[in-house]
Amino acid sequence: MKGNEAIAEAAIRAGTDGYFGYPITPQSEVLEYLMAEKPHERTGMVVLQAESEVAAINMVYGGAGCGKKIMTSSSSPGISLKQEGITYIAGAELPCLILNVVRGGPGLGTIQPAQSDYFQATKGGGHGDYHLIVLAPSSVQEMADFVELAYDLAFKYRNPAMILSDGAIGQMMEKVWLKPQKERSKEAPEWATTGKTPDRERNIITSLDLDSNQQEQFNVKLQDKYREMKEKEVRYEEFQCDDAEYLLVAYGTSARVCQKAIQLAREEGIKAGLLRPITLFPFPTKEIRQMADQVKGMLSVEMSAGQMVEDVRLAVNGKVPVEHFGRMGGIVTNAEEVVESLKTKIIGG
Amino acid sequence: MAENISPKTIIKPENLVHKRSSVLTDKTMHYCPGCGHGTAHNVLAEVIDEMDIQQDTIGVTPVGCSVLMYNYLDLDMQEAAHGRAPALATAIKRLLPEKYVFTYQGDGDLAAIGTAETIHSCNRGENILIIFINNGIYGMTGGQMAPTTLEGMRSSTSPYGRDTQMMGNPLKMTDIVATLPGTYYVTRQSVHKPANVRKTRKAIRKAFEYQKLNKGTCFIEIVSNCPSGWKMTPVESNKWMEENMFPFYPLGDFKVPEDK
Q1: Which residues in chain A have their CB less than 8 angstroms from residue B79's CB?
Q2: Each residue of A203-217: pLDDT tens digit?
Q3: How many CB pairs (< 8 A) connect A and B?
């Protein structure tokens, strides 16, 4: 299955209550697949093509406020449009799943894969002090698997979760094992707007507080939540790190390329390893810091001008050299280039 | 005869002709003296009360003067981003089809920044009620020009009067949505006089009845006043509204179901 199709099918099977989207390349297959599958007949799931990304994300807001499992998907320019809704959702502390199949930018950019939305995804994206939970799949299997993980984390923390994929993972075909159909939840969380019954106070979904002291307290609470995520929810994968003298740090498509690069490097006698962050927020800061005690240098490989490299540098805090290598504009980095860059920027540098 | 009615007689239960809706909370409303919002809230609360649908109703509030409406109605409510209320309501209604869902929006919210959401919700025929308060001005931000500000009307961003050559024309959203196949009941009312309040209450009641039957979007415009924004006394503002707003935004039904 294509990555985009796998995530759509996984969404139905995870018991998603509603999907609201708007077509944009390279992720239109998500909406197309859902429409073709008639999930309203399979599970009662609502699927709607909105008039814009702005409307779609605000439909997500409305649905999430009812305590439902709600999803949307888009690609970079569309995700920019969704930022207004995303900050409201974060401010109203609602869970939801947002898929970004990243393409090259800025502006309309290109329809080819890129990883240049890392800052937007991990640092907030919209206005105000907030973070998304950000998961980075590097295979079609993970596109499918992360749906349920994203919902679990989103509901646990009452916070929007994003699956940050890219055009390559979205479009590539791989074998995928899908979980069996999960029933849609019949119960709503106690904060959901489902109609005020006489036995409880009314539920209000809002991100507004005109009292500065209360708004500050709310912000402190959000920060506490993010701190807890950093302590408990970091996920990453190591590849040939045990004896590594040089560390590549990469996620998504770049992590796949780096696995090949490590093989090439080791054929040349260079002991390279890979740390692949699976959660980009919370970021595996501690783990990368620990690797700085072991390796002589790190190379952050991203299909961007260098965004995650800043978080790697913060983790390493000057202990060893950290450089960035990556192609932009929709060009996927190749393994030979990575090895070459490792040699010139880190080993030789 | 009037002199025979003592306070003691008046407070007897059998003489009760009107009581405060239990759907209203005890919170003091923040609206300016003479503003129509309070009456519109009250009418809406009364209908929800009389239909006994409080626990089945979910409201979506806008950004504008009525942003804090959720403090005044004892209902489950969601506070939308500016202009996006119909998008939220679309999802709420589709996910909870057995509930009554309404939005309450001002002219800036509905007719400027939320034009797309409004038109497309109406065009899809979402089974929601959209209540549109049109006072021709941005009240909350301090009296700026709205999409519905009349030609020649002064505001803080049209200090010499709205020049339609430069600033465009006032937008008649109710006329537009009435042309869309998805709308079922479209009307324009006011709440400045008891007779009008009664008509508005009737319209809201009808809209909720139609919603129960899944008939499509019901759209009720309430032409209202803004004494602070218009820089008038409440009485002057109502007179001005009758003389200037009503000729351009005439009251009455735009689309009524044929199968009555």
Answers
A1: 92, 204-208
A2: 999 999 999 999 999
A3: 123
